[in-house]
C-alpha cells in the first residue's frame, strides 16, 4: 500500500480500498480513483491465487455502472500471470507482486 501511495500521491488520484457493507464483507485491497476511472488491485500472495465469482474484484469488474478501467491481482509466484479465466466486463490481469513492484519503482525513477 505504501508503494502505491508513493507512486500516485502527486497524480491527483485518491487511494483507498473497497469493502462491502453487507453480507460476507467482500473487499478489494486497493482502489486507485481518478476523476474518470479507477484501478482495482487485489493481493493474493499465496501459492493458490484462484478467484471465484464471489470475490469482490470479480463482482465489481462485471458491473456496468462502475468506471473501472484496469484490474490486477498481485500473485506470489513469478509464473502466475496473465488474464484470469472469469468472464467479466473488465479483464482482470494476474501479475507477480515482485514484477509489479519493480515496474512501479521504474516508473517512479522515470517521472
**Ends apart, CA distance between termini:** 20 Å
Series of H and E elements? HEEEHEEEH
Strand-residue proportion: 25-35%
Overall pLDDT: 88
Structural class: alpha/beta
Total DSSP helices: 3
| Computed Rg | 14 Å
Unreliable runs: none
Number of strands: 6
- Largest sheet report: 6 strands, mixed
* Secondary structure: helix percent: 10-25%
Strand order of the biggest β-sheet: 1-2-3-4-6-5
What does this structure look like?
It is a single chain. By secondary structure, this protein is an alpha/beta fold. It is 24% helix and 32% strand. The protein has a 6-stranded mixed beta sheet. The radius of gyration is 14 Å and the shape is globular. The mean pLDDT is 88.
Short description:
This protein is α/β, with parallel strands linked by helices and 111 residues long. It contains three helices and six strands; from the N terminus they run H-E-E-E-H-E-E-E-H. Helices cover 24% and strands 32% of the residues.
List descriptors.
111 residues, single chain, alpha/beta, globular, six-stranded mixed β-sheet, 3 helices, 6 strands
SSE map:
Elements lengths: L1 H7 L5 E6 L7 E7 L4 E7 L11 H6 L6 E8 L6 E2 L8 E5 H14 L1
Parallel strand pairs: 3-4, 4-6
Antiparallel strand pairs: 1-2, 2-3, 5-6
